[in-house]
Amino acid sequence: ANPGHRLTDAKFHNPHGMAINADGEIFVCNKGHFITRIHGDLVDIVSGKYNTWSPLSNGEPSESILDQPRNFAVDFEGNYFFAGGNDRTVRKLSIE
User: Fold this and answer.
1) Strands 71-74 and 42-48, how do they pair?
2) Which residues pair with 5 in a beta bridge?
3) How far apart are CA 94 and CA 25, in angstroms?
4) Measured between alpha carbons, how far is 41 from 51 in angstroms, rounded to an integer?
5) What is the C-alpha separation between 33 and 56, in angstroms, rounded?
6) Which of 33, 34, 47, 52 is least enclosed by beta carbons within 10 angstroms?
7) Taking 60 as the threshold, does the pLDDT of residue 55 lie above it?
8) Going by C-beta distance under 8 Å and a sequence separation of 6 or more, which residues neighbour residue 59?
9) What is the pLDDT of residue 62?
10) 2 pLDDT band (50/70/90 cuts)?
């Protein structure tokens, strides 16, 4: 994805599932192996790497390797969860 302004710079890769948190930020699962956040006019990658697939890994969100994330959810305490897709996992995501 090209992070940046949501109307002029940002690009998604097969967006699949999304959720909105209490602050109005929109999180989008991209089957191109990453998760983006839309906040105001800006889009950034919060987990995974654009169109990168290798052996899956957990850890810091920017270093994690995701396998086509499909669905995203936010609970009432502000915790973030996503379904991993092909790896058949559900992960909790820490976003600072």
Assistant:
1) unpaired
2) 42
3) 15
4) 23
5) 10
6) 52
7) no
8) none
9) 66
10) low
